[in-house]
Specification:
Blueprint lengths: L1 H40 E6 L17 E10 H12 L3 E2 L10 E10 H9 L4 E6 L4 E5 L6 H4 L3 E9 L4 E2 L4 E4 L5 E3 L5 E7 L2 E8 L6 E7 L4 E3 L2 E3 L9 E4 L2 E4 L12 H5 L6 H5 L6 E5 L8 E5 L5
Parallel strand pairs: 3-6, 7-14, 7-15
Antiparallel strand pairs: 1-5, 2-4, 5-6, 7-8, 7-11, 9-10, 9-12, 12-13, 16-17, 18-19
Length: about 300
């Protein structure tokens, strides 16, 4: 009888194992069917590459303005920040998206698409957007080699800082006479595909660096390298004028503005700001409160003659 009980238990475990295997096969089939349905219903498929695309080709939901500055954060943190600021219903899975990789996102008055591209470029995923507006990150579909598939060639290269050989990320690389452009990645590398055959000038621009260019010859089906080293340059910021009711850019102020340059101040032996303004700023009158050393002064503006 004990033998019969053991035989029954073994048979029950085998039955449960077969049932579990059958359930696993059904689940896998269901997942494949769901992906097939999702593929048929995807109204837009967005691929995140270093090559720029026309903003008109991007769905309206991804054209929303956004400003985001993130340094050395995880992909998951960046996706959460973009979704929260743009109020996106974005679905993704750790099994598909490398959520623990570190990225930099630097977007100033850009679009949601710009922020997502900087987060997901070269991560092996693409964005599916359904006709109802639902968004999901899915594995990027493999495609044949672009150099042999399309007419034109490819321009690749690396942008570095002159004298230091350090990569320059998020630099804009464009091809003259075309709408083709790309952003450099964290390692300073970029790639521009479908460049018409012929001689082109490649321009590189990045805030804080001097713009530079180089001439290259592109041939159909071939790759051309264009490396550039940018020199660091100081940036002239727009002057801000403080008024009695706020701050404005100098170009937006309609009234008269008086200024005293640093050269004028350096050429005269003065001890206070009041002395620097006296007699040098039109419409400004500085009156000493008393003759005592260190006494304060009163600064008055004279009204313009009517």
């Amino acid at each position: 009888m004990a033998h019969a009980i053991r035989h029954g238990a073994v048979q029950m475990r085998a039955t449960r194992a077969l049932a579990g295997l059958a359930l696993l096969l059904v689940s896998a089939a269901g997942t494949a069917a769901a992906q097939d349905v999702a593929a048929r219903r995807a109204a837009h498929v967005i691929r995140f590459t270093a090559t720029m695309i026309a903003i008109e080709a991007v769905p309206v939901a991804l054209r929303q303005p956004i400003t985001l500055h993130l340094h050395d954060v995880t992909v998951e943190h960046a996706l959460q920040a973009v979704s929260a600021q743009a109020e996106l219903g974005l679905t993704y899975s750790r099994a598909i998206v490398p959520l623990d990789e570190r990225v930099n996102v630097d977007v100033e008055n850009g679009t949601v698409f710009d922020a997502l591209r900087q987060t997901l470029v070269d991560k092996g995923v693409e964005l599916w957007i359904s006709a109802e507006g639902r968004m999901a990150l899915v594995p990027e579909q493999r495609r044949p080699d672009r150099a042999s598939e399309v007419a034109g060639g490819i321009i690749t290269g690396r942008i570095t800082r002159a004298g230091a050989d350090e990569p320059v990320a998020l630099a804009t690389v464009s091809v003259s006479g075309t709408r083709l452009a790309a952003l450099t990645r964290a390692d300073g590398r970029y790639s521009i595909v479908e460049v018409p055959a012929g001689t082109h000038s490649v321009y590189v621009r990045r805030l804080g660096y001097t713009a530079d260019s180089v001439s290259v010859v592109v041939r159909d089906g071939q790759s051309t390298t264009a490396d550039l080293a940018l020199r660091v340059a100081s940036v002239q910021l727009n002057p801000i004028v403080a008024t009695g009711y706020g701050t404005s850019a100098r170009a937006e102020v309609t009234g008269s503005i008086a200024s005293v340059s640093s050269a004028e101040i350096a050429s005269t032996p003065i001890q206070t700001v009041n002395e620097a303004l006296q007699g040098r700023a039109p419409g400004i009158v500085v009156v000493q409160q008393s003759g005592q050393p260190g006494a304060g002064a009163m600064v008055r503006t004279t009204p313009a003659p009517s």
